[in-house]
User: Which sequence fits this backbone?
């Protein structure tokens, strides 16, 4: 698919030049939405932590360009003993209600998280993952995300939505055989 881009165009050249540092166009966004209440429960926070770890194991993902409250790269500012520290929001899933409340407080008081990785109404969480341009296998990414990130975690009370360019191309490969049969049927019908 990248071969279809006009590689001499300045915008495309800038994209390829800086994609490794700032992320390319191959992002997947996974949203976990609860139907009732908010996401700040031990069960949901454990689920988002486990989903983030599963996303980090998907083939071709850039491990340093994942954004989620359950990932080591999502941090907040705090002052500890007179020094500024930036610990991760969640080092592990919460075990007590006090830890859940602390995570909730951090999320609602951090501009880079509230409204971006946690929805404004507190009913949805987002995982953003960027993939390395040279290691893209759209079909494999599609299958792995379905098998490891969606299927083990989706329930009737929570919905998981996925969007992004690798996901779109994965759907194209998923339906490629059906399109072939429809083409044959349409050709036969027209004949």
Assistant:
């Amino acid at each position: 698919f990248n071969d279809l881009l006009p590689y001499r165009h300045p915008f495309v050249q800038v994209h390829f030049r800086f994609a490794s540092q700032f992320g390319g166009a191959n992002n997947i966004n996974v949203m976990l939405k609860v139907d009732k209440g908010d996401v700040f429960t031990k069960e949901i926070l454990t689920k988002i932590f486990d989903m983030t770890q599963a996303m980090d194991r998907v083939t071709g993902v850039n491990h340093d360009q994942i954004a989620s409250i359950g990932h080591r790269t999502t941090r907040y500012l705090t002052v500890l003993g007179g020094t500024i520290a930036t610990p991760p929001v969640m080092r592990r899933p919460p075990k007590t209600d006090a830890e859940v409340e602390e995570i909730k407080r951090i999320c609602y008081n951090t501009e880079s998280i509230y409204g971006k990785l946690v929805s404004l109404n507190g009913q949805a969480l987002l995982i953003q993952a960027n993939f390395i341009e040279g290691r893209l296998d759209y079909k494999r990414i599609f299958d792995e995300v379905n098998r490891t990130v969606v299927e083990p975690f989706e329930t009737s009370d929570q919905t998981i939505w996925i969007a992004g360019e690798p996901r779109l191309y994965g759907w194209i490969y998923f339906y490629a055989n059906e399109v072939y049969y429809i083409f044959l049927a349409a050709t036969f019908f027209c004949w």
